Amino acid sequence: MDPFITPFRVQLTTEAFHEFRNGKVSRRRLSSLSNYYCDQEAARFSVEQSDPLVYEVWELEYEAVGRGLSFGMTRIFPGIVGKEFFFTRGHFHADSDGDEMYIVLSGHGMLVMSSHAGDCQILEMIPGQMCYVPGHLAHRTVNVGEEPLVFFTIWPPNLVHDYETIAQTGFPKLIVSGLSGPEIISNPNY
Ligand code: S6P
Ligand code: ZN
Q: From CA 26, how far away is CA 21, in angstroms rounded?
């Protein structure tokens, strides 16, 4: 990557990011996430039926350059596995080495954050609002609405993503579909 970052602009839409020549895209189907869900039976059934696309991420990381700002756009589709809404894997920023900003563009979500000690904080994600994620907290986004949840994220360069910890422990809280809407419950497996 060119170490001299040149000015550029891009529309904050998934279509524009789809066309964005510098970014990379990754798509996550349920089969690559099924271990993360509490209801393993429901996850297996859904994978066998259609293996739905849960979320996609476009991102531009300035990891190798050591400066600049990395950024990305995430779109989580609406859906449920058992009672849990579709979510991202979630991760820590290793060594608590960088805060992150989430700007919500459309949809309705919850941002679940947890420290290594298991202190959990949850923010509602509402279009037009920004959520600030301190670098020492693991973070996962959950789509609790009926439309795709789309948000733009910005983080510092040289940030190392730790996925392993969350893959092993999960988050202390789960966001599930209740009788009158999304509910926060304790994770029985945490
Ligand atoms: C990166 C930032 C987001 C996520 C994205 C997908 O630091 O937090 O761009 O990468 O929302 O989530 P995950 O947990 O699969 O990376
Ligand atoms: Zn992050």
A: 14
Q: Which atom of ligand 1 is nearest to the CA of 166?
A: 14
Strands (E), the chain: 24-29, 53-60, 70-76, 80-81, 84-85, 92-93, 100-106, 109-114, 120-125, 130-133, 138-143, 149-155, 161-162, 173-178, 181-186
**pLDDT of 62 higher than 90:** no
Write out residues with Cβ below 6 Å of ligand 1: 57, 59, 72, 74, 88-91, 100, 139, 141, 153, 155
Backbone angles phi, psi at 174, to 5 degrees: -120, 150
Single out the residue of 156, 161, 4 nearest to residue 69, CA to CA.
Answer: 156
* pTM higher than the cut 0.85: yes
| Residue 95 CB contacts under 8 Å (≥ 6 apart), including other chains | 160
In tens, the pLDDT along 1-58 reads 555 678 889 999 999 988 876 778 999 999 999 999 999 999 999 999 999 999 999 9
Structure tokens given for 45: 């059934």
d(CA 171, CA 188): 10
Distance 161 CA to ligand 2 centre (A): 7
